[in-house]
């Protein structure tokens, strides 16, 4: 074989890669790799005079082995040594190895940083680019600390070559994303803005990406970029631009730079300067005009680039929301895409029209395409496009077309995908409630919903017959079976006179879904069956046969087996009178007065209560005026088994705690505290301390200390409660429960799942309990933690107000004033705006006020934000 010179390439690497590819099994590959690793290790250890070419070859082999998924524990130092080479290929391989294998915690970071500093100072553009690429690829905090000040100087230096400027801008962008606190906006930012006028469009493109990121953090510092961006965009969309020959992509001039410039302009409101605003309008009109021209190429790359610029321009038009002519033109342009053969184009058109529907200038124009959107919903093959069609129909829905849209949705609901059904039943109620097809919609909703908590809104007018009719469908959701089982078990006798809903028909319908349900739902149905024996003695034998079957009496689930045995025995030994007493109809929920309202009566007098009640009645006046406001106290008791079903074991509880169990998927039945327990006063002295903190001591007396440690994320929270026994005597029969206050005809606002605790607390010991919290809607009243235990033979009862407040579930949202007022204008309903202006009573601490307002910038309704803002800041003025 003739000798191969070093200039012909790394022949050894090519042979090694070929050997790996020719391996017939994984074992052969591992064997070949281990052999090569042993050879490389011996070369690195034994041969101290390895030249740069050999080091480069072996480092490349190690890199290839690592990319195959094998661990590499040596060779790092040899790669670092390659950085000091003056040959490009050797330095390139060294940087490549470091970028892929070296992590931010490596001990070699200091040596690497020194090599990078030398290359940045060399003024060799090739070496500088390699160093900048390495910094951007690794992006560690150590590198950001070392080079965050150096890279901006390279970027704005007058003698820096264009290729290095481009790499420096992208490197600085990477560091700003990984370590934003280290990339401080300074004097160099104004010089970066002027890079938008650079003759090299590669530099302009990289600088635009950097400016977008910086403008999102500090818009005022880079607002001078707006006229420069408009000027550059104008030169791009103007025909026959001389500087775009090398940046024309399939007949589209500089599409990616155009997209970035349009995205940069979306960081700011419309330009105030009339000349700049007019020039920007001309640019947007030119982009819309080019979209209507015949395509210059049939290749997909041309259409992708062309439509990328168009949709970004439409996003800018929607963002400004100030030019009616452009908004209508954009809507008409998107309407032409609704029947385009490209699926992605139809998807983007529907998505953009959803945003146009929120503008007062283009809402009517969007509504003209309602028939096309409905047709797309029925004929579209792609489920994601159908989902966007559903969103657009609801976005364009108003009083003039609500009936048509809801009717179409209900007709489509029966054949829709399950992923779309949830969206339909979630969004339709606000519109269906205003139409005559409301009851029909409720039936459809029951058939397809995965959530039954909202049924508190509808139970007062949903007929008993509706669940029975819905159960006749071939497939229905398990929650419908649960609701149908409860309603028919309690009130099925009221419709039993009709042959279409005879007792046997009701039983057969429910039992046909039995094998499709989970264990908790089956347990509920068994309770329904025993109630059927009481309601319908004529089908007693049929039900006993089901309870007597091996699948029930020998069921592997203990809960189902026990219910089947007990219910079967009860049906044989109990007389008719006893059975009627045990299985009597559930009593109506009693009206109870909230203990918190009772305290308000005592503290502030009877004049306070009517105002509170009146405000609640006003809030619920839209609920057809059919149901009065009722305060219901539910107790989440920790000692109840989680496997209990919605109906219990046939006994009729007398408390309102069953409200949660009937309409909740996760709650277990709860029992009220012992009737003989004295009513304890609620301690809330330390409650206010936890408004802005999550840890600390909530309550303490001579016997017990209660500490809290909590965390909240979005609408979920977890609270750890620590009970400390300060005495030397055991606490016996220790139990705790959480009391929640709801308004009956509103959604459940707060759910607290309490984990059970040990009933004995030794002297000097500490007991931990976990509370899982879910916020479902805005709430006012904080829950009460009720603790009971026996100390020295005496029953002790302590009630403490838990610091679970609405602000715990807030999530801040950062936005500019222009974005805020744009969203503000979109909320046009009368009840969505609450504003209060008042004079300051005292001097205002800016930092404290800013911190409190920051906690209130969240995604909630505007009235809640405004009201809580006034309440929280009232002490500062």
Task: State the share of residues found in helices, binned by percent.
Answer: 40-55%
The number of E-state strands comes to 12
Taking all Cα atoms into account, the compactness measure Rg is 35 Å
Largest beta-sheet characterization: 5 strands, mixed
Strand ordering within the main sheet? 3-8-11-12-4
> What proportion of the residues form beta strands (DSSP E)?
5-15%
Termini Cα gap: 92 Å
Return the structural class: alpha+beta
Poorly predicted ranges (pLDDT <50, ≥5 residues)? 1-8, 432-437, 448-459, 604-679, 742-747, 858-877
Report the mean per-residue pLDDT as an integer.
77
Using the alpha-carbon principal axes, give the shape. Answer: globular
Total number of helices: 39
What characteristics describe this protein?
single chain, 877 residues, alpha+beta, five-stranded mixed sheet, five-stranded antiparallel sheet, 12 strands, 51% helix, disordered C terminus
Describe the structure.
Helix 2 (26-46) runs antiparallel to helix 3 and helix 3 runs parallel beside helix 5 (88-101). The protein is of the alpha+beta class and 877 residues long. 51% of the residues lie in helices and 9% in strands. The strands form three sheets. It has a five-stranded mixed sheet. A five-stranded antiparallel sheet has the order 5-6-7-10-9, with no helix packed on it. The chain has a two-stranded antiparallel ribbon with strand order 1-2. The N and C termini lie far apart (92 Å).
């Amino acid at each position: 074989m003739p000798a191969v010179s070093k200039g012909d390439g790394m022949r050894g690497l090519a042979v090694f890669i070929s050997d790996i590819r020719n391996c017939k099994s994984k074992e052969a590959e591992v064997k070949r790799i281990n052999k090569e690793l042993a050879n490389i290790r011996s070369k690195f250890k034994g041969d101290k005079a390895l030249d740069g070419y050999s080091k480069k070859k072996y480092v490349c082999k190690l890199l290839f082995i690592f990319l195959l998924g094998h661990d590499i524990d040596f060779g790092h130092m040899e790669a670092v040594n390659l950085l000091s080479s003056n040959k490009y290929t050797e330095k390139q391989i060294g940087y490549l190895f470091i970028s892929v294998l070296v992590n931010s915690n490596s001990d070699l970071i200091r040596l690497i940083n020194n090599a990078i500093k030398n290359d940045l100072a060399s003024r060799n553009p090739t070496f500088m680019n390699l160093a900048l690429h390495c910094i951007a690829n690794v992006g560690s905090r150590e590198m950001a600390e070392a080079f965050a000040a150096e890279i901006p100087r390279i970027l704005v230096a007058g003698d820096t070559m264009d290729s290095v400027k481009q790499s420096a801008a992208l490197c600085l962008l990477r560091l700003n994303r990984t370590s934003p606190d280290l990339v401080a906006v300074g004097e160099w930012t104004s010089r970066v803005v002027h890079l938008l006028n650079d003759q090299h469009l590669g530099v302009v493109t990289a600088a635009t990406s950097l400016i977008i990121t910086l403008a999102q953090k500090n818009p005022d510092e880079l607002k001078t970029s707006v006229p420069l961006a408009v000027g550059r965009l104008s030169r791009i969309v103007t025909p026959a631009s001389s500087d775009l020959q090398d940046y024309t992509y399939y007949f589209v001039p500089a599409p990616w730079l155009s997209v970035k410039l349009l995205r940069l302009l979306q960081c700011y409101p419309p330009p105030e300067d009339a000349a700049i605003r007019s020039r920007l309008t001309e640019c947007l009109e030119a982009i819309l005009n080019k979209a209507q021209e015949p395509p210059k190429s049939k290749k997909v790359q041309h259409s992708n680039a062309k439509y990328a610029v168009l949709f970004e321009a439409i996003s800018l038009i929607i963002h400004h929301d100030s030019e009616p002519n452009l908004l209508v033109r954009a809507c008409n342009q998107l309407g032409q895409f609704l029947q385009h053969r490209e699926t992605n184009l139809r998807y983007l058109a529907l998505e953009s029209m959803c945003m146009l529907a929120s503008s007062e200038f283009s809402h009517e124009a969007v509504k003209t395409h309602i028939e096309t959107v409905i047709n797309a919903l029925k004929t579209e093959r792609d489920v994601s496009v159908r989902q966007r069609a559903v969103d657009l129909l609801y976005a364009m829905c108003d009083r003039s077309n609500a009936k048509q849209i809801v009717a179409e949705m209900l007709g489509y609901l029966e054949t829709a995908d399950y992923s779309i059904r949830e969206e339909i039943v979630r969004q339709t109620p606000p519109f269906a409630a205003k139409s005559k097809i409301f009851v029909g919609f409720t039936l459809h909703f029951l058939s397809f919903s995965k959530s039954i908590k909202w049924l508190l809104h509808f139970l007062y007018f949903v007929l008993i017959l509706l669940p029975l009719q819905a159960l006749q469908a071939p497939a229905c959701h398990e929650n419908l079976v649960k609701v149908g089982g409860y309603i028919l078990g309690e009130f099925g006798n009221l419709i039993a006179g009709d042959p279409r809903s005879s007792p046997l028909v009701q039983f057969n319908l429910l039992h046909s879904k039995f094998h499709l349900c989970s264990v908790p739902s089956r347990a509920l149905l068994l309770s329904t069956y025993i109630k059927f024996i009481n309601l319908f003695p004529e089908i007693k034998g049929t039900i006993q046969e089901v309870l007597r079957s091996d699948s029930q009496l020998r069921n592997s689930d203990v809960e189902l087996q026990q219910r089947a045995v007990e219910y079967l025995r009860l049906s044989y030994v109990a007389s008719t009178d006893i059975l009627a007493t045990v299985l009597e109809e559930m009593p109506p929920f009693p009206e109870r007065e909230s203990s918190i309202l009772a305290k308000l009566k005592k503290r502030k007098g009877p004049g306070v209560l009517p105002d509170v009640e009146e405000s609640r009645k006003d809030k619920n006046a839209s609920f057809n005026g059919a149901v009065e406001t009722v305060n219901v106290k539910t107790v989440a008791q920790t000692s109840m088994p989680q496997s209990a079903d919605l109906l219990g074991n046939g006994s009729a509880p007398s408390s309102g705690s069953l409200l949660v169990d009937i309409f909740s998927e996760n709650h277990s039945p709860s029992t009220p505290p012992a009737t003989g327990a004295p009513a304890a006063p609620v301690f809330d002295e330390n409650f206010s301390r936890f408004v802005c903190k999550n840890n600390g001591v909530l309550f303490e007396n001579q016997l017990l200390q209660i500490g809290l440690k909590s965390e909240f994320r979005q609408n979920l929270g977890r609270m750890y409660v620590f009970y400390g026994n300060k005495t030397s005597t055991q606490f016996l029969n220790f139990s705790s429960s959480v009391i929640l206050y709801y308004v009956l005809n509103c959604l459940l606002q707060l759910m607290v799942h309490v984990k059970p605790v040990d009933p004995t607390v030794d002297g000097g010991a500490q007991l931990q309990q976990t509370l899982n919290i879910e916020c479902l809607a805005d709430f006012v009243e904080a829950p009460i933690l009720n603790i009971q235990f026996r100390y020295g033979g005496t029953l002790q009862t302590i009630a403490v107000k838990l610091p679970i407040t609405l602000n715990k579930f807030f999530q801040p949202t950062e936005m500019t004033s222009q974005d805020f007022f744009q969203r503000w204008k979109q909320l046009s309903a009368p009840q969505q705006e609450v504003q209060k202006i008042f004079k300051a009573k005292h001097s205002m601490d800016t930092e404290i006020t800013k911190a409190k307002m920051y906690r209130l910038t969240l995604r909630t309704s505007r009235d809640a934000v405004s009201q809580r803002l006034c309440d929280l800041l009232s002490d500062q003025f």
